Amino acid sequence: MASGFSHDVLVIGGGAAGLMCAATAGARGRSVLVIEHANRVGKKILMSGGGRCNFTNTGAGPANYLSSNPHFCRSALARYTPRDFIALVESHRIAYHEKDLGQLFCDDSSRQIVAMLLAECEQAGVHIATGCSIEQVTVHEGGGYVVHSAHGAFAAPALVVASGGLSIPSMGASGFGYALARQFGHTLLPTRAGLVPLTLSGKPQEQLADLAGVALPVRVASGRAAFENAMLFTHRGVSGPAILQISSYWQPGQPLHLDLLPGQDALDLLQAQRAARPAAELKTVLGDLLPRRFAQRLCEHWLPNRPMKQFNPAQLRQAAQLLRAWPLVASGTEGYRTAEVTLGGVDTREVSQATFESRRAPGLYFVGEVLDVTGWLGGYNFQWAWASGHAAGQAV
Question: In what residue span(s) does the RsdA/BaiN/AoA(So)-like insert domain sit (predicted)?
Answer without folding.
Answer: 192-341
